[in-house]
Amino acid sequence: MTMNKIKHHLTDALLMGYAAGTLPEAFNLVVATHISMCDTCRAALAGYDAVGGEVMLDSDPVSMAEDALATAMSRISATRHVKPAKPKQVASIFPEPLRDYAGGDLDKVKWRRVGGGVSQMVLNTDGGASVRLLRIPAGTAVPDHGHRGLELTLVLQGAFVDETDRFGTGDIEIANEDLNHTPVAEAGMDCICLAATDAPLRFNGFMPRLAQRFIGI
Amino acid sequence: MMPVYAKTSKARLRSMGARQVTAEATTKRMAWVTQVAAVRDRQDKAAFAELFAYFAPRVKSFLMKSGASPDVAEECAQEVMVTLWNKAHLFDPSKASVSTWIFTIARNRRIDILRKQKRPEPEDLPWGPEAEPDQADAMGLQQETEQLGEALAALPAEQRKLIERAYFGELSHSEIAAETGLPLGTIKSRIRLALERLRHTMK
Question: In angstroms, rounded to a whole number, what is the distance separating the alpha carbons of residues A112 and A135?
Answer without folding.
Answer: 10
